[in-house]
Amino acid sequence: MNKKPTKVSADKTYLKHFSVPGFSQAQIMARAGKLPPESENFIAIVEGVYERVKSTKDGDWTEIEVILHSQIAMLNTLAANFMNKAIGGYESPEVLGTFPQLPLEFANLSLKCQAEMRKCAALLHEIKNPKKPATFIKNFVNKQLNQLQVEQEEIKQRLEANNHAPVDFTSKREAETIDTAVATVAVQHGASNARGQSD
Description:
By secondary structure, the chain is an all-alpha fold. The protein is built from seven helices and no strands.
């Protein structure tokens, strides 16, 4: 007698958890902790991560600082360990004869650990001493305003030099009714008024 195939559940709502930020990392952490690969375990890990995210949003960076200090100490230990292995390899004729590249590989690993350690230290310093963008923006605005005042003063001086008369930007002046240059020409030609016309 043939058995009827079992029906597969059409409910796929659990798949939405795979799109949750941090869910993939939670699977790796669960595997490292040898936990059963169950969605409840993954979700619990992600919720724990989100709790720490909330603390940083509230301005508490204590846990991040602890992590960075721990990484710096761990990387420092690894760097010293790999360098000791590299030195031991260079001093061992057996190692140089069988694996001549091994001491150099250990030395490179030590240098990589030191580089990562410096990155952690720099990040920790940035967290403890954050930059102040407000001060930077304020200084930039003040610099632009000062430059604008200098350019305005230069324009004012040029206009005064061209017109041979002071220019007042603070108030409006009425237009002159007599053009002095035209009046001078009119007098030279014997005109009786400023427009160069005789009565």
